[in-house]
Amino acid sequence: MKASIPLAIAAFIASPAHAQVEDAGRWVIYGTISTHERDAGVPGGAIRAAQPPATHAEPWTSGAVLKLPQAIAAGETVAATFWARAAKPMRTTAAIQGPEPSYTRVASTDLALTPQWQRFTVAGTAPAALAAGSQALVVTLGQVDSAVMLGPVAWVPASGAAKAFAAYRPAAVPVDLTIPSKAATLAGTLHLPVGCGPFPVAIVLQGHGPNGRGGFDEVIARLNRDGIAALEYDKRGIGQSTGTYVEDIGLLTADAQAAVAAMRARPDIDGSHVALIGHSQGGVVAPAVAAADPSIGAVVTLGGSVGDGFPMLANALRQQMIAARRPPAAVEPAVEAAMALLKARAAGRSDASVTPLRTALVDRIEALGFTRPEAEEGLKRIDTPEAWSADKVHSARDLAATKAPVLAVYGGKDPLVIAAPEAAAARTALAANPKAKVVVFDDLSHWFQDGAVTGDEKEVEKLGPNIGSPRVVALVGDFVAGALK
Q1: Do 383 and 397 reside in the same domain of the chain?
Q2: Is residue 2 part of a domain?
Q3: Whether residue 319 sits in one domain with residue 378
Q4: Are residues 179 and 267 located together in one domain of the fold?
Q5: What Pfam family does this protein match (any one) (predicted)?
Q6: Same domain, 313 and 195
Q7: What's the number of domains the chain is made of?
Q8: Domain encompassing residue 129
């Protein structure tokens, strides 16, 4: 059976700029619970501990993944040497392989894990030229029956591993923690720079959807190299966070405020120097927190929409349809139909009474040249509880009220948050803030990855990490460091 790695995991990639040894914190664990821990038995002292999955299935239904950072020429040796152990003796498999649909395997080896740390090497010959990020070191966990601990990885053969690990000096130490919030406890990871604190901190805020930790790896690594800690956390009801998952802007803001409070309570964090970095929906939450808390030191919004209430949502829908090459005048009936439906939902009208409004919206979308299935999918994306409560969103007002330095970044190929009107709205909202900056990268999409062609979400898995463009990482890193130090 072909080895299957979830799509969300395939988006993870290590930067080619990293050293040949990668910290254990960069392992991505899927299909089971994992924690960041400390263990002096491995170089750098940081490990990733994965619990056995709740139910045993195919070997690849749970695993640990770390993407190969560099390109490989045809015929070149591909090797990874890594540290691993298990709570009790057991066997599993490690491989270097490509993504779906072929899952071409370059090399594999059996692992005889014991309670003692060992170094294992997987090595093979590239059958063809392999692009950076196209291959991954993967350890199967789907059938393990005890905890597996993984240490750092050196992208070198066994013969060069001792020297590589001896020279390894990690930039940060990941620490798992919990954050109390309203009717929920958030599970997070604090990436602390190596050295003496207290450290300034940046809190990263996820975009729309059931997102856990991850998605800011390159930005976090840059911050850590600058001596800035970074906190990421699972949304409520997602991953290891408790509570009920709901896309409620009020609760999301409360959770971010709880994260700020938790950081200010730590002796290793300088609570007077806190930044917020929000992507997409997080770019709406960050200004909401900062507007209510003038002591926030900096705000970065990445693809964050700007506006207030239902007019903001109507304009976003309008711009998305125009970006899909529908005539501006022709999209108005669809926008009007969407607003009629959403306002009826906001007023609490029954499902039966809004059924004609739902049908009317599908008809209007189909009239724009979309197929009926496409129009029905559009309805699903529009008719959501968070859209019903759009009147609670006031990102333009919040940006205008934010006194901290603000960086708003947009992608010219973004199909969701259309750069030209959103950047203009951001400039208007921030006009009175002399420490504000609005930047548009014409060739980047909503996910801020180099190499976007259409900007469609289907490209994401092929283009490296979320917010991985070195230009964006450098811009954000420079801005936050300048604001917090």
Answers
A1: no
A2: no
A3: yes
A4: yes
A5: Abhydrolase_6
A6: no
A7: 3
A8: 7-166
Residue ending a domain, among 166, 182, 201, is 166
Do 208 and 279 lie in one domain? The reply is yes
Query: What's the CATH number where 480 sits?
Result: 3.40.50.1820
Residues 224 and 155 in one domain: no
- In this structure, is residue 115 part of a structural domain? yes
pTM for the full predicted model: 0.82
Confidence at 166, pLDDT banded by 50, 70, 90: very high
Q: Same domain, yes or no, for 126 and 38?
A: yes
Predicted local distance difference test score (pLDDT) of residue 15: 33
User: In whole angstroms, how far apart are CA 133 and each of 31, 64, 311, 461?
Assistant: 21, 16, 41, 10
Q: pLDDT per residue over 82-139, tens digit each?
A: 999 999 999 999 999 987 766 778 999 999 999 999 999 999 998 888 887 788 999 9
Residue 36 lies in a domain: yes
Q: What is the pLDDT of residues 283-298, one digit of tens each?
A: 999 999 999 999 999 9
Among 339, 367, 390, which residue terminates a domain? 390
In this predicted structure, what is the pLDDT of residue 101? 67
Euclidean distance between CA atoms 360 and 42, whole angstroms:
62
pLDDT at 445 over 70: yes
Full 3-state SS string of the chain: CCCCCCHHHHCCCCCCCCCCEECHHHCEEECCCEEEEECCCCCCCEEEEECCCCCCCCHHHCEEEEECCCCECCCCEEEEEEEEEECCCEEEEEEEECCCCCCCEEEEEEEEECCCCEEEEEEEECCCCECCCCCEEEEECCCCCCCEEEEEEECCCHHHHHHHHHCCCCCEEEEEEEEEECCEEEEEEEEEECCCCCEEEEEEECCCCCCCCCCCHHHHHHHHHCCCEEEEECCCCCCCCCCCCCCCHHHHHHHHHHHHHHHHCCCCEEEEEEEEEEECCHHHHHHHHHHHCCCCCEEEEECCCCCEHHHHHHHHHHHHHHHCCCCHHHHHHHHHHHHHHHHHHHCCCCHHHHHHHHHHHHHHHHHCCCCHHHHHHHHHHHCCHHHHCHHHCEHHHHHHHCCCCEEEEEECCCCCCCHHHHHHHHHHHCCCCCCEEEEEECCCCCCCCCCCCCCCHHHHHHCCCCCCCHHHHHHHHHHHHHHHC
Residues 305, 320: contact at Cβ < 8 Å? no
